Fold each of these.
Amino acid sequence: MAGKSDTAGHRQRLRQRFMKAGADGLADYELLELLLFQAIGRRDTKPVAKALLARFGSYAEVISADVAEIKKVEGAGDAVAIALKTVQASALRLTQDEVMNQPVLTSWDKLLKYCRAAMAYETSEHFRILFLNKKNVLIADEVQQQGTVDHTPVYPREVVKRALELGATALIMVHNHPSGDASPSKADIEMTKEVHAACDKLGIQLHDHIIVAKSGANSFKTMGLL
């Protein structure tokens, strides 16, 4: 009974601190504890929270981790995995709503924030295309390909075909580097040239190619590569 009372008291104190000071008033493991209250009933969530951080490294990496990997952590079953992935999905939905149906060229920082949230922590490469209309408003956001840890096959013909199907007049390509280094490879540069040429033939503008990683993001346009 004493153990249950201590746990209940700790939970209440942590909730009160959060309500008073917000997330900034909590350490990463405490924020995870608070989240895990919803998934783990009447047990101390601190060991699980700390084990998750030890396994993945940061709060962002915990909620972005693969479900199968989360469940390998002692005490983290289906309920914990669902709680964590729900938070990630909510964060992505929030950042996506800030850029969808908006002129993306005037909301560039929000766009980069969304791309990093969506892709920076993936363990395999994903190739995403943001399709824009003639007013540069984002009308579609689609993952076109998923590859290995260091390669994603991209077919310029398919990129252009999809743009025409959507009635897009411009696009932005985005892909991630699971290695953590956002620098473009030779293959990235060559692929971008091929897609640019294919788009140019049909009057579709390739605004940029963005590479995202845990370390940050790089823009081909800013680097003078496009």
Note: The chain has two domains: 2-93, 104-219.
Amino acid sequence: MKKIVALVVLVVIGGLATWFVSTRAAPAPDVTLTSLSGQKIALSELRGKVVLVKFWATNCVSCVAQMPDNIENYNKYHSQGFDLIAVAMEYDPINFVQKFVETRKLPFTVALDTQGTVAKAFGDVKLTPIAFLIDKNGNIIKRYLGLYDKTELRKSIEKALAGKPAS
């Protein structure tokens, strides 16, 4: 009986993982984000760029572990038309987010989702880290939940920058 339960759990987890890393393009929600500095950024204004929208929290160990890679990816691809918006979850205290951004010297936009509306628009995001890779046409081409393979992410960014479909 335990083997059957374990098998069912593995199948469910595999199905969820497949859904989160799905390659079917779907339009990204047309949301307006507010940066830490108060700047309003409509996601639709970033059309023509490849954008990674990453939901994170300062108390999320995986999120913190991925920040050096996020900085590296931003610095490597930004001049080629890549942008990254790190969306702090609504439960994350603003002063914690500000301190994190200052101490880590994050070069990309950090947005606050104080009402949870951005997370809801992206499918009611509750878990972090979760990231959505959006192509130049404003379509979500990849979803990443948890720790992802950074080589695969970079390949996906490079394909999207070249205008090639995600695989």
Note: The chain has a mean pLDDT of 89.
Amino acid sequence: MSTIDTGKSQDRRALRFANFTEVSRDLDVLHAAIAGGTLRTSGNWNAAQVFNHLAAFMEYPFNRYPSELAAPPWFVRFVMKFMRRRMCFGRMPAGVKIPGVRGGTVGIEDSPVDAAEARLRAAIARLDREAPTRPSPLFGPMSHEEWKGLNLRHCELHLSFLHTR
């Protein structure tokens, strides 16, 4: 199976979420498309992998970061310091791979799509109501609004590859 260079893909939905209620509404629409057999993906992951990936990155700052993400090199932290605002409130670029991480990222395990969706909805609910307890390995301590913004941008990025036809 060949992979798509998602950094160059034009086949994406234009998404901009102001809050997690809007993400949940989009998940409702995607859920209906999955149930109706009309969901189409334009990236390299299926819906369950997208949902699990988004949920994992919402869970890490509450639970524990995987070792691959826990201690980025100093130069990566230095560069990301200047991108913090953009990543939280601007747009996340597609096609970025985390250096030194097999496959370029983590948290993309496949599972039954209903379980992945439930996991994502639970992670959204928790992040919406409470601030994470661990600092970001890239950005250090962050406000609750920054955590929410970062994850809203992450949802925009990955959910943009899921289409209802």
Note: The chain has one domain: 20-163.
